[in-house]
């Protein structure tokens, strides 16, 4: 899909410099108010969101937001305040409020900025890299409406069994942010996100089924064509019609790529610092232990071009690095910011604010190849509910998808439950496909787990 037109004069660097100037002034005020350490976040966001349904426009929303957050430390007492008003009087009041809060809070031995020697260093050209993540799309409302209408209409026209629509939407956003602290660190980032999606309804009465498809990209030129998205939404909805029965039992389960990454998400939740120091994780003291098969690996790659979470530094200014989270099936480290690291007696992993582009290594072909390796089992394409116990690892969620017989799709299934324990599920991963879903910072293909309980509704 081609971008509609070239961007007008790009003033993003000038806007970043303006935000950096605000951050520096705020840090000076924090020092003047008695703060021993301080950090400031400044952000600016612009966006356009359009929604249509059944050929009519439902929403057109243009957004433009700016805001600041100030955190001060007086010794090891912490106070934070924020504002969306960037007038000087409001900025001054925000600093005063943060300092006032800090004076009345309890001391926390883990409080404070990340260590000064961990700060990322500005490249020699004086600009932070954006890893090809800045691609403004000068989309006006009329153009966005046309794209959404074309997407929905293509889906509705592609199959007579499509009887209704939940609509199509277009999203377009630009984000600028600056983080600065009293170590002397000042880092600026910019990024764009563009999306187009459609949800359709197939069938009639109690037999209706809903599904959809969407594209999410950094650069509009990488987006799937509107008609292709609409047709894919229709195909997914009609494929779910006339679901058949499932006999309760224990079977292999194949997770489609967008469902497979939820398993990685559960791993991240269990190895994050907050869950660990609160002792609310089933993976306490698991670093250095074998959690997955020996061939399994997950690598964090913060410098990927056009990556959805590429960054040279984390939310505390700590330099990011490419490193293994899992290698040879062994959990190599946790996911820590400076506060959680201190609580655990460890060091920050450069993950304040989250992980930066995880790649799950494949050892198999695409989704059809993984299905072909199942004599009798389940393909999961949707998950419902929140039935995951992060303390025990017990897993039970509603699901829908397709029943597999003899390595082929036999019929759709709906209203079932899949259950297991995440430790056993991780150990039981038999294959990860090469069919990576690019619409996330967790880059993962389809995944086959050898043994789970499947129960009919």
TrEMBL record:
Residues 38-102 form the Metalloprotease TldD/E N-terminal domain. InterPro entries: Metalloprtase-TldD/E_C, Metalloprtase-TldD/E_cen_dom, Metalloprtase-TldD/E_N, PmbA, TldD/PmbA_N, TldD/PmbA_sf. GO terms for molecular function: metallopeptidase activity. The keyword DNA repair does not apply. The keyword Protease applies. Residues 135-241 form the Metalloprotease TldD/E central domain. Keywords: Hydrolase, Metalloprotease, Protease. Residues 248-455 form the Metalloprotease TldD/E C-terminal domain. Belongs to the peptidase U62 family. This is Metalloprotease PmbA. The lineage of its organism: Bacteria, Pseudomonadati, Pseudomonadota, Gammaproteobacteria, Lysobacterales.
